[in-house]
Amino acid sequence: MGFEKREILLILGALFLMIGLLPFIAPVYSVIIAVAIYFGIRIFVKKRKQQIQKSVGEGVCAVCGARIVQSKCPNCDGTEGT
Ligand SMILES: [Zn+2]
Fold first, then answer.
1. Distance 50 CA to ligand 1 centre (A)
2. How far apart are CA 18 and CA 37, in angstroms?
3. CA 26 to CA 41: how far, in whole Å?
4. What pTM was estimated for this model as a whole?
5. Which pLDDT score, from 0 to 100, does residue 58 have?
């Protein structure tokens, strides 16, 4: 299932924006703006997800629960293994 609830909200948001812009600019431009915003947010969310996965992938410290940075805990640096 690649179709998330958030994506439906995003499509609806872009659609409403498009409709909202219709009285002010040409329909073609409102469609272009809505599509651009939709894909812009999608790319942004995807990049952020990848960043989160990357940081989560390093794991957390078993002692204090802090995020592991470069396979070392920022709080108990050097005391790993317990
Ligand atoms: Zn720690």
1. 24
2. 10
3. 23
4. 0.57
5. 74
